[in-house]
Protein backbone atom coordinates (compact mmCIF):
# COMPACT_ATOMS: atom_id res chain seq x y z
CA UNK A 1 0.00 0.00 0.00
CA UNK A 2 1.33 3.43 -0.95
CA UNK A 3 1.03 6.12 1.71
CA UNK A 4 -0.11 9.30 0.02
CA UNK A 5 0.89 12.56 1.71
CA UNK A 6 -1.95 14.14 3.64
CA UNK A 7 -2.98 17.61 2.52
CA UNK A 8 -2.58 20.16 5.29
CA UNK A 9 -5.75 22.15 5.87
CA UNK A 10 -5.60 25.29 8.00
CA UNK A 11 -8.74 26.21 9.93
CA UNK A 12 -9.64 29.02 12.32
CA UNK A 13 -12.63 27.30 13.96
CA UNK A 14 -11.03 26.43 17.29
CA UNK A 15 -14.15 24.85 18.77
CA UNK A 16 -14.20 22.07 16.14
CA UNK A 17 -13.51 18.50 17.28
CA UNK A 18 -10.89 18.15 14.51
CA UNK A 19 -9.01 21.41 15.24
CA UNK A 20 -5.36 20.79 16.09
CA UNK A 21 -2.07 22.52 16.83
CA UNK A 22 -1.05 25.36 14.51
CA UNK A 23 -4.69 25.57 13.30
CA UNK A 24 -4.31 22.33 11.33
CA UNK A 25 -7.38 20.18 10.65
CA UNK A 26 -6.94 16.65 12.03
CA UNK A 27 -9.95 15.09 10.23
CA UNK A 28 -9.36 11.92 8.21
CA UNK A 29 -11.62 13.29 5.47
CA UNK A 30 -13.11 16.72 4.86
CA UNK A 31 -16.50 17.44 3.28
CA UNK A 32 -16.93 20.84 1.65
CA UNK A 33 -20.14 22.07 0.04
CA UNK A 34 -21.46 25.27 -1.48
CA UNK A 35 -23.52 27.44 0.86
CA UNK A 36 -26.70 26.69 -1.08
CA UNK A 37 -26.53 23.12 0.29
CA UNK A 38 -25.14 23.99 3.74
CA UNK A 39 -28.42 23.48 5.58
CA UNK A 40 -28.82 19.91 4.32
CA UNK A 41 -28.56 17.22 7.00
CA UNK A 42 -25.80 14.85 5.88
CA UNK A 43 -26.00 12.90 9.13
CA UNK A 44 -29.06 11.08 7.84
CA UNK A 45 -28.51 7.60 6.46
CA UNK A 46 -29.47 8.66 2.94
CA UNK A 47 -27.48 11.91 3.06
CA UNK A 48 -24.34 10.69 1.32
CA UNK A 49 -26.29 9.07 -1.50
CA UNK A 50 -27.59 12.45 -2.65
CA UNK A 51 -24.27 14.27 -2.39
CA UNK A 52 -21.75 11.61 -3.36
CA UNK A 53 -21.54 12.35 -7.07
CA UNK A 54 -23.07 15.79 -7.57
CA UNK A 55 -20.95 18.69 -8.76
CA UNK A 56 -21.48 22.37 -8.12
CA UNK A 57 -19.51 25.47 -8.99
CA UNK A 58 -18.60 28.22 -6.54
CA UNK A 59 -17.70 31.68 -7.83
CA UNK A 60 -15.67 32.54 -4.73
CA UNK A 61 -14.26 30.72 -1.70
CA UNK A 62 -16.73 32.68 0.45
CA UNK A 63 -19.54 30.71 -1.22
CA UNK A 64 -18.30 27.45 0.30
CA UNK A 65 -18.47 25.86 3.73
CA UNK A 66 -16.91 22.91 5.52
CA UNK A 67 -19.44 20.24 6.51
CA UNK A 68 -16.85 18.24 8.45
CA UNK A 69 -17.23 20.59 11.44
CA UNK A 70 -18.24 18.87 14.66
CA UNK A 71 -18.33 20.85 17.94
CA UNK A 72 -15.70 19.92 20.49
CA UNK A 73 -17.28 18.09 23.43
TrEMBL record:
Q: What is this protein called?
A: DUF1540 domain-containing protein
Which Pfam families has this protein been placed in? DUF1540
The DUF1540 domain is annotated at: 9-69
Instruction: Identify the InterPro entries for this entry.
Output: DUF1540
Amino acid sequence: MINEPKTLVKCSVSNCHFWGEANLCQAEKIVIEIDAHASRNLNEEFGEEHFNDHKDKARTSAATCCLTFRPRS
